[in-house]
Amino acid sequence: MATKVATKLRGKKMVRKEISTDTQIKRAIREVVQADKAVSYPIAGYKGLEVRIRPHKEGADATSDFRHRYTHPITGKRPYMTLGQYPALSLADARQYHNDNMQLLAKGTDPIEHREGKKQKELTERQNTLNHFINEWRDIQASKNLKKRTIKNLEELVRPIEKQLGHMKVTDITPSLVIKFINSIQKTNTYKGLRVRTLLKSILQIAKAHMVIEYNPASDLQGTLKRHTSKHRPALSNDVTAFAKLLNEIEQLDDASQLYNKRILQLLSLTFTRVGDLCAMRWTDIHWLKKQWQFKPQKSGNRGDMVTSLVIPLAPQALAILKQMQSLTGDSDYVFHNARRKKEPYHHPQAINKVLNSDLMNNGQGYKDIHSPHGFRSTAKTMLMERLGYDELITELALGHRMLNAYGTAYNRMTGLEQRAKMMNDWANYLDDIKAGKFDNVIHADFKQQAQKQS
What we know:
Elements: E1 5-9, E2 12-16, H1 22-35, E3 39-42, E4 49-55, E5 62-69, E6 80-86, H2 91-106, H3 111-127, H4 130-142, H5 148-165, H6 175-186, H7 190-209, H8 240-251, H9 259-271, H10 275-279, E7 286-287, E8 292-295, E9 310-313, H11 316-329, H12 350-356, H13 375-386, H14 392-398, H15 417-435, H16 447-454
Antiparallel strand pairs: 1-2, 3-4, 4-5, 5-6, 7-8, 8-9
Helix pairs in contact: 4-5, 4-7, 5-7, 6-7, 9-11
């Protein structure tokens, strides 16, 4: 029969007795709350196992913990090991933990040291999973102050990595596993698969930097993945008659329903900038006296071949369009202000694609796979060189590209604004001419002679 120990609590006589059922624990909790003093009750049949009940200061409840007091197999000390809180840890579970501890002690192993070692191992394993390094990679990206669009694109790439490989230890990720993973993505999108592989390589490189792995399994996979064949965006670069037709169709768009689309398409043909930059054009970036548009291209932070800021000389035809827009949106931040878009309150670039591909254009057939908003860039470059005689250097500068080719690094700081201003005016006048049906103003450029001058 259980030994009874008399204890006085607040003038009341309470008995600390061994417990063998849940009902007895609950009754003991009520008694301790009433007495408002902590008491430990031994668990019947399990030496050293007890439930410690501590009333809350408010006196309305109590906290109950299972503890195991044992003798250390080496030092002989008598530590307490907290097993868990009741009722989250049941009486049956506490008894099982006690049995487990006794088995460890029989082998000369201290239960507390064993538990801490197990926790440390689990922590180390969690820190060695790919998810751990994905989170570290995210922290690095957050420190770069990236644009929202860039962050969104990166998250789309990291999502399949996180879903399929995130739970794995990086030491278990092999080149063959990476190849299988990337091939599964390339079944539907070859280019995306290659981009995911590049991102995975960057994440695993962090693990390598921490010396968790000695070799990056996403490296040196040439020949094992599908190659991506780049497809140029459609453009009417070599058909001046068809391009003139497109320009006239833009002119005939309705000002009432297609005002923004019409003006943006007109400016795209005159400035040949990227459609995203043009839709996000700000009034503060327009310098009327200098006749210039100065801005930071949206892709400047992601492309090593793009300048960080760009100045576009504005021809009189472009300035006239902006004057028309000034009377409409001059009080707004953006030239093509759209109050319905809260985060980016300007005209959506996708709308330009839609109108080009719609039945409003090309005799109801649209220009899908024939000419795109980006196509104005390649068309302008081709015709400026082949029909107006401008060299590659000046056209590349106009496109906002860094000169990293045979011209040398000295040209990186060159702006060529004076020459480009003349070129933009010549280009605007040339567009007016071909819209009017004048196609005889072709200058046959002597590229060999120009190359000799450059050297």
